[in-house]
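Quick note —
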Amino acid sequence: MDEKDILKRLERLEKAVFPQNTKNQNEIKNEFTDALNKIEKILEPLKLKYSLDDWIMFEAIIPDEEHGVNAHLTSFKTLCLEENDEDIAKLCSALASKQRILILKQLSRNKLASSELTAVTGMTGGHLHHHIRDLLSLGLIEKEASGKYSATTFGINAYITAASLYRRLSYDNRESFKENLHNLGKAKK
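Predicted structure written out below.
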């Protein structure tokens, strides 16, 4: 990947993160940097409550007005001590399906009936309902009284977190990461 490709990728990323509006790009970037600095100052005293060799993680997801801000602060050691590996594996298993990811993504954007899900995903009948059942059982989506499905706040956060994790890992070393993903699960000869 040459310098031009990297600059184009950064430009596309900036346009996605800082959409065009009445403010100029530099003003938006400055506001974002200011917000990060304020968050860091607010969280600094909390860091003293954690071990110096621990990693502190702050995550904020702001999907839309209906779901509001969802912020979370934890540490790596806390996650290791308190979270059940089997439960994490169940969640990862649910998110390990391209079809369930597609359903979750669509329902994060819109409330859809089964017929509408069929139209946007291409899945039909039992195949679609198998994936819907799995997503419902984990609380990632819900069925409303109208008969339409929608993603729960938990489901939206799970999708955003998984997609962000993919983006973060893939941008750190994109070519190597893509190759490793491609080779994942292939039998060694």
